[in-house]
Structures are given as structure tokens and as C-alpha cells.
Amino acid sequence: GCALNCTFNAKLLKRGLFANVYVPPFPGDESIGFGAASHRYLEANKGWKPFESARQHGFFGPKTSGLSEALIQTIFRDHCIERPASITEFTAGKLAEGEIVAWYQGRSESGPRALGHRSILADPSRAGLKDELNSRIKFREDFRPYGCSCLHENADEYFDVPKGFDNPYMSFAVHTRADWRDRLSQVTHVDGTSRMQTVRASQNTIFHELISKFAAKTGVACVLNTSLNVMGEPIVETAEDALNFLEKTPVDGLAIGPFYVTRVAQ
Questions:
Q1: Which positions ≥6 away from 259 have C-beta within 8 Å?
Q2: Mean pLDDT, all residues of the chain
């Protein structure tokens, strides 16, 4: 689990001891089994070569976590369900209006980071957002920063990283550029760093599309991204989990598959 220390990883990278520092999306003890399986696979497939970084992802959750439309409509039948022409365009509009949105798409992440399939999303430039999340939804300590997901092609505009910097699994805490620290204060820690994520279209098409449409509306090509859960509970995995989350927390809406779900007004 030491490799989940984003601050240490960034310092290690900055020291220049290695040409590159690669951290997989799930570097904890569970990766021992993954490594053993990979070793046997390599023994049986001598011609195998690793995927290039731009094609890698961390979405290896159960295949059953990718939901059918019929199941979504059944589970949320007592709530308001909309099916917009584009879930990314619709959700980007909600985020641009200042709403906090639960985002459930495809198979879940492997590992502890929310990488854009099981996330709570919001406008990172919205004043007071961190305090609202802490007091109403996440109940976290004030000193803990929130993550920031940014388009891969725009990351060097907001953060002190070279062009083309890869951080798809939120493995490095890098400095927010001085001219963006005020506007990105909700995702910038007290030491000026941000636990950011770079998002490529080739790794997470729908999440990249959402951030792109949010950028078109706001001029900011990144969103606040934190895990889709509340303190003391695991990250949402199933449609039933998502229903429980929606009913327990004051998020403004849930984007699940092609649908946007809200609570029925009382």
C-alpha cells in the first residue's frame, strides 16, 4: 500500500532517480495474486507484450456491475428517471450549474481510487464546495483534499507537470500552477499540491467526453472527483448500492448509464 502515497510518489518522480515511475491502479497486497496470474500467463504466451500506457485502464470490477437499462428502470422505478439525448452533455450542464452529481458508469474501478466510473463529481471552482461535501456527504476531516480529474491534453495548463504527463490512477500529487490555485482551491491542498488524475479518451471515453463538455461550458477542463460512497461504507458497486446512496445523501442527481435519476419531490 506504500505506492498509494501520492506525495511520496511525486517526490520520487521529481528526484529523477528513474526515467519513469509506474504505479498500477491497485498496488496493495491484492496485486500479489494478480502478479502471480500474470506470470503464469506470460509463461504460456511468450509473444505477449504489455499495452502502451494510453490503452491501459483500471476498470476490472465484476462484469455484472455494468447494468442493463431494464434493471436501472426497475431499481429506480420510484424515482424521477430522465433519459437525455446525451448523458454527458446533460450531466456537464448540471455540473456547470453548480450541482453535485453521483456518476455510475460501466464496470467499477479496481483499487481504492475513484477514476471516473464510481465517482461524486462537482465543479472544482465552486466556492465552499469542499466544506459542503465534508458536512453533508463525505464527512471527512478538513485537512483531507479532494481529487481532481483533468483532461490529459490540458493537464500542464493547470498543474506543474510536463506536456503529456500520465497520471491515470491518481498516483501522484503535483503542484497546482500558481495562476490556477484560487480557482482550483477546492481540489488544492494546503501545500499547493493536488491529487489529480489525467483522463485520456482512449482509457475512459465517456468520462473524457463529460469533462470535455464541462470545459466547453465553463472553460475549466477538470472536475472535482471523489469516491461514490459515504464514510464507513464501501464504494458503490451495484444498482442497489446506488439507490441506497441516492436516498441517503443530498447529492442533486445520479447519472447511471444513459439515465439521470433524482429523488421525487416531497
A1: 69, 72, 73, 76, 81, 82, 83, 87
A2: 92
d(CA 204, CA 105): 10
Task: Count CB-CB contacts under 10 A for residue 201.
Answer: 15
Output the furthest CA–CA distance in the chain (Å, rounded).
62
Give me the pLDDT at residue 110, please: 87
With a cut of 60, say whether residue 266 has pLDDT above it.
no
The model's pLDDT over 130-152, given as tens digits with 9 standing for 90+, comes to 999 998 888 887 777 799 999 99
- Give the model's pLDDT for residue 46: 82
d(CA 170, CA 226) in angstroms, rounded, equals 11
pLDDT in tens, 89-111: 999 999 999 999 999 999 999 88
Amino acid found at 98: G
- Residues 6 or more apart whose CB falls under 8 angstroms from that of 86 comprise none
Residues counted in the chain: 266
State the DSSP string of the chain. -GGG-HHHHHHHHHHTSSS-----S--STTHHHHHHHHHHHHHH-TT--PPPGGG-----S-GGGS--HHHHHHHTTTSEEE--S-HHHHHHHHHHTT--EEEE-SSPPSSSS--SSEEEEE-TT-TTHHHHHIIIII---TTPPPEEEEEGGGHHHHBS--TT---TTS--EEEBPGGGTTTTGGG--TTSEEEEEEE-TTT-HHHHHHHHHHHHHHS--EEEEEESS-TTSPPP-SHHHHHHHHHHS--SEEEETTEEEEPPP-
